[in-house]
């Protein structure tokens, strides 16, 4: 009987997972994260069973959105008072609160569930690599990332850059580093003044 | 179900009947009838022609005959778990009375309610029930999270850069 | 005429459909048939219900007090139902309690009949009960020792004690049909009387049909009650780690080493730890737990279960048809945990004896 008690505890235990959101699409990450929040990854899953796990997400500041979603994807809010409707682009929301985009993505993914608020309480979001020690001690597993983190030019060592085979033969007077000195326009010059960042 | 108005129960086996030996759970059966009333005609017919077959087949069941004046015929079955069940036998042919007697003989005496599950077992699992750490790689037990080894996407496929480097190395 | 009419009405009682006569011209009686419901009927029924409640429940009566009762038929059917051929006299004796014999003697004394002149030919069932009890106890222990050859003697005794409690035997005897057949002064029958009667039935079978038949009876009715229970929970081990250490060291293996296997949610209420026990770097058993200490204790218990070969994945008891050709070693002796503890801890420090108790 006592053994049954600990076995039941073990089967229905709430484990803690960690996820690195660096260079990840928030919507695809939300799909994976909410799977673990609901407990769909467990064979003992049932909606009424409260078998979901905790998920700790860090590096939410460094998420990546495709295309022009930073500008075109809007978050809406209504204060339920007259004239209380507002909307903001993703980049503005991200400036305000770097965890909000991923949080809203997970929240929207869980729509229709009546235990959505409980599940969202088990999602812990951190903008940077700084995670409190007491939370980090709970973690027992890591969720695989959704997208490959592309290796930036800064991540290559000078040796790698030099040893990479030359694919094209450039003319002698071609200035290779000219892209660094390219005439960069001020941001948002292509749009009307009303839409520019202040 | 959340509704408790309609009684329901799990399946029960009285005293693990059948695990050791099978014991017929019907202890005694009483046939009540009137000696003269026409309503008991079928019952009297049953007693004359079919009752002895029943008693010979079931020596472990005590059969009582209880004549009651001006009352309708019925059978009362008493089971080993102390319960009594009675059934009206008015307007039932002797063949039907035989069947009802046989029905009482085959019962376990437990009250008939809705089944919660139509099966019951003491050992639901012999291999053990799944738990979150059953199929986890034991290396993750000593890992310090977050670990890029467990985080990175596994199947990345060949990128253009890989292809170029491979071709270049092959050429060399 | 009026008086007879009135008396008819009175005798008709509370029945609602009474055709009232319209001979009277005072407006007290209604004219014609009743067209509404009898408002008095509900009040009448309520009052009768309350009277029944005030009178209290029916007093409990023996089954033999009802009209449809034949003791001879019942005794015969009892044997047939169980599939055993009893001698009628021994079976009757098995149901006669001492209190019944005393009661009969008292009645005869009250009636003035001399006991010596007309001796009471009633023997009670105490002798049968003693024989049956002894046979049942010994057979249960022999059977359990053979089925679980590696189980410690204390565990076997615990299982035997569980099966031979008064409540358990009373439960069994009730569901066989002993309750109605018992002859005793007390009513309702206590569990002590019921269990004595069951033992007496076993004893009666032993004296009629011999040891094998009686043992089969015990195997068919008493042992299946172990099916629903976990045999390991019947024996309370106080210090499983101490016992495990003694067992392993005395059998030549290394001391048990508990290691943390998995943990999750260490800082939360829903913390989970898996602890495994190793001896000489060989895995023995593991168990989960809410805290590390609980997990370690449960793992030690699992290890002892593994040593006794009574894990949850053990084979079921051999009962029914499978047990017909069962050959048991009646002389078998199982290892005693107490001996192991004394051997291991007693040889070192005498003070250690007090800390390890079963």
Protein model, in words:
Chain A: It is found in: Mitochondrion. Chain A: This is Large ribosomal subunit protein uL13m. Chain A: One of its GO terms (cellular component) is mitochondrial large ribosomal subunit. The complex is a heterotrimer of chains A (198), B (172) and C (358). Chain A is an alpha/beta fold and 198 residues long. Chain A has one domain (8-183): Ribosomal protein L13 (Ribosomal Protein L13p, Chain: A). Chain A contains eight helices and six strands, in the order H-E-H-E-H-E-E-H-H-H-E-H-E-H. In chain A, the strands form two sheets. A four-stranded parallel β-sheet of chain A has the order 5-2-1-6. A two-stranded antiparallel sheet of chain A has the order 3-4. In chain A, strand 3 (74-78) and strand 4 form a beta hairpin. The N and C termini of chain A lie far apart (68 Å). By secondary structure, chain B is of the alpha/beta class. Among the domains of chain B are: 23-106, Glutaredoxin; 138-171, no CATH class. Chain B has a four-stranded mixed β-sheet, with helices on one face. In chain B, strands 1-6 form a two-stranded parallel sheet. In chain B, strand 4 and strand 5 form a beta hairpin. In chain B, helix 1 (41-49) packs across helix 3 (94-106). Chain B is rod-shaped. The termini of chain B are far apart. Chain C folds into two domains: 69-231, Ribonuclease III domain (Ribonuclease iii, N-terminal Endonuclease Domain, Chain A, Orthogonal Bundle), CATH 1.10.1520; 237-311 and 331-345, Double Stranded RNA Binding Domain (2-Layer Sandwich). Chain C has helices at 2-12, 39-55, 71-82, 88-95, 98-111, 126-147, 153-163, 166-176, 191-209, 211-221, 231-234, 240-250, 292-308, 337-347, 352-355, and strands at 257-264, 272-279, 282-289. In chain C, helix 6 (126-147) crosses helix 10. Mean pLDDT of chain C is 88; it is low at 349-358. A three-stranded antiparallel β-sheet of chain C has the order 1-2-3, covered by helices on one side. The radius of gyration of chain C is 34 Å and the shape is flat. With 358 residues, chain C is mainly α. Chain C contains 15 helices and three strands. Chain B binds chain C through residues 14-16, 18-21, 23-24, 27-28, 30, 59-62, 64, 66, 80-82, 122-123, 126-128, 131-133, 136, 138, 141, and chain C through 67-70, 73-74, 76-78, 80-83, 171-172, 174-177, 179-180, 219-221, 223-225, 227-228, 261-262, 264, 274, 288, 312-313, 316, 319-320.
